[in-house]
Design brief:
By secondary structure, the chain is mostly beta strands. The chain has no helices and 22 strands.
């Protein structure tokens, strides 16, 4: 029988720095909850809003796969590898921090907030050469179907990371059902609802709820309203 864990939207950690409003699904920075350290290889899921013209100054990372998914606005990225870029809704960015990198992220807009998801996944190998990549996806390819945005394979759809993980985003109309079959034995799926109401394997979920499920081969997903959600399949043992 499948195991599950439910994280309601209002149960997440909150950090309000004025220029930054961040909600933490898992323990992060000053938010510590021993029951919420990770979901398998999924270590961080931050739901961030950055004020116009503000951002994160240069800071280090190592031995982590770091994924950014912009939801609204333009986020400028700079790093110690010489990359300077802007990511927007429809893009996905990945950094393999490996032996160590420094980077900064700033809201490129002067008149609107930036909203983005910051996700950390434990890598399956340490001390790799640091790497940066970003791609633009066709968001129409996620209408009433699951669009793959991340995988372990360089030649597969989406970006790739050093982990046996797959991410998909779906934007579904009310009343549409779908099914997700897990790609690898020993993996679980953490679903994060971006908008609307969704039922996954009989669990009703609302906007910004998180739901983890493992020891199962597939998910049955029903879009109870117009909805958008992210599925993160990751190894449960790290």
């Amino acid at each position: 029988m499948a195991n599950t864990i439910l994280h309601k939207a209002d149960s997440r950690g909150l950090a309000d720095h004025g220029w930054l409003l961040s909600r933490h699904t898992f323990s992060f920075a000053n938010y510590y909850n021993p029951d919420r350290m990770n979901f398998g290889a999924l270590r961080v899921l931050n739901d961030d809003i950055v004020e116009a013209g503000k951002g994160f100054g240069t800071h280090p990372h190592d031995n982590m796969e770091i994924i950014s998914i912009p939801l609204e606005g333009d986020l400028e990225h700079r790093d110690s590898m010489g990359n300077v870029s802007v990511i927007r809704h429809g893009d996905i960015q990945v950094m393999s921090a490996g032996t160590g990198i420094f980077h900064s992220e700033f809201n490129k807009n002067s008149d609107q907030d930036v909203k983005f998801l910051q996700i950390w996944v434990f890598p399956d190998k340490k001390n790799v050469t640091p790497r940066y990549d970003q791609i633009s996806l066709n968001i129409n390819d996620r209408i009433n179907k699951l669009q793959q945005v991340l995988s372990p394979n360089e030649d597969d759809e989406g970006v790739w990371i050093n982990q046996n993980a797959w991410f998909h985003i779906g934007r579904f109309s009310k009343g549409i059902n779908t099914e997700y079959k897990l790609k690898a034995k020993g993996n679980g799926v953490y679903a994060f609802i971006l908008s609307g109401n969704v039922t996954i394997n009989s669990q009703q979920l609302k906007s910004r709820d998180g739901f983890g499920i493992w020891d199962t081969e597939k998910l049955k997903i029903s879009s109870d309203t117009d909805s958008e959600f992210l599925l993160m399949e990751v190894p449960m043992v790290i």
